[in-house]
Amino acid sequence: MLRITKPLCQHHIQTAIIGAGVIGLAVSRALSKKGHEVLLLEQATSIGSETSSRNSEVIHAGIYYDRNIMPYKSKFCVEGKQLLYQYCIERDVPFKQCGKLLVAADADQRDSGLPKLVEYAKGNGVHDLKIVSMEDIKDPYSDVYEPNVKCTGAVYSPSTGIINSHSFMQSMLAEAEEHGTTLALNCRVEGGRSAGPNVILTVDGEEMVCDNVIVCAGLHSHKIASDILSQSNQQSSVSKQNEARIPRQFYAKGNYFTLQNQKQPFSRLVYPLPDPRGGLGVHATIDLSGSTKFGPDVEWIDDAVINPYDIDMNVDPNRAKSFYAAIRKYWPDLNYDNLVADYSGIRPKLWHPSQTNIDNALKDFFIATPNHHGVQGLHVLLGIESPGLTSSLAIGNHMAKIIDRGCIVDVK
To answer: What's the CA gap between 77 and 58, in Å, rounded?
Structure first.
């Protein structure tokens, strides 16, 4: 195993992966297990220090995603869930398959929203959901007993769970390194350009020739890819039109509050129905220690913001007012002053509410291959938000197939 803080001065790298978050680690693991030489580049001093460590740590079932509109999310979430549970068992990664209730706040959500979720799930191959009544939830002898939940009915998802994401990432790193991956921390990719069938990356002033470059840089993926495409345009036949086919990323901040001075109310996750503004609503999540946190909400960042480091990651305590209102719809016994501002995360989005005529396809994950932008060897993963953690192992396997076959792999 070799771990360095500056990239090796090698003349030629088979595959460079930019970003050592949960997606970059999963891709590194999958490729190295197939015998590829992998150099994993991370600008921070540790792995998974941004989006991958600022989320709800939920293993999603695959309920929400219309496979006709979001084929990547629908396929990778369901496939990734199965892979992730098996991985946790085999590698002793802490997890709990605690289940989840998706609660209806009124008769319309009960009669229309809940059946729609069940149909989406069936279309994705998730057949274990069931609609339960308010009486079921209040029945101490039922398998969905949650006496503190207020609702008109709910969908119960038994395959939803929680995971220790840090342990998961450390395990993937260890496995990737066992198969030859080299992790290079504190290494900043400053740009790159096309060079025939290769991509030349500039990393901390040094150039390296790569057969393949896979950009898994989360919030920074669009900027890195755009720099490579821009420099390629200046030196080759790659057109500005192809550069424009890489969608821009926007940012949506999600804030979390922790419960204090009150008994933990739930034994499983409790979600409202999805938020039409772009999230899954202010939900209740339990962690592996039994503590309860609420969030995330959806706080869209101004579309003029390009650099994610310009975003204030502190949680505004004044947002607690909207949290109390949202939570009390399904837990009316929440006491005042018992929510404490905790942490926030940023979702990379490919659309923004300021836009008109939004293409629904931009609500899916986006994998840009040479067919999109014209640079041989360059692959870019964009908009990898929820359910990215759940989908990570499936995405890793998918990218390994693309690199092995040298072509797009159909997900339908």
So the answer is: 11
Alpha helices by DSSP H, 260-345: 320-327
What's the pLDDT score for residue 279? 55
Render pLDDT for 176-227 as a digit per residue (tens, 0 to 9). 999 999 999 999 999 999 998 999 999 999 999 999 999 999 999 999 999 9
CA distances from 25 to 119, 292, 355 (A): 33, 28, 33
- Average pLDDT (121-140) is 96
To the nearest 10°, the Cα dihedral for 302, 342, 335, 103? 70
In the chain, the amino acid numbered 243 is E
What's the token pair of residue 73? Answer: 């999310």
What is d(CA 361, CA 223) in angstroms, rounded to the nearest whole number? 21
CA distance 349 to 385: 7
Residue pair 22/42 in contact by the 8 Å Cβ criterion = no
CA distance 260 to 404: 50
In the chain, the amino acid numbered 85 is: Y
CA distances from 125 to 75, 82, 250, 409 (A): 9, 12, 31, 20
Which pLDDT belongs to residue 231? 86
pLDDT grade for 340, boundaries at 50, 70 and 90: very high
Percentage of the chain surpassing pLDDT 70? 92
Paired sense of beta strands 12-18 and 38-41, if any: parallel
Residue 176 and residue 40 in contact, taking contact as beta carbons nearer than 8 Å: yes
Is the bond leading into 296 cis (omega within 30 degrees of zero)?
A: yes
288 burial level (CB within 10 Å; 0-12, 13-18, 19+): middle
Per-position DSSP letters for 218-263, written without gaps between them: GGGHHHHHHHHHHHHHHHSS--HHHHTTSPPPEEEEEEEEEE-SS-
Which residue, among 371, 366, 370, has the nearest Cα to 395 in the 3D structure?
366
Dist. CA 356–CA 148, nearest whole Å: 41
pLDDT class of 92 with cuts at 50, 70, 90: very high
Query: How many angstroms separate the CA atoms of 408 and 412, rounded?
Result: 12
Distance CA 98, CA 410 (A): 33
Residue with tokens 């640079």: 375
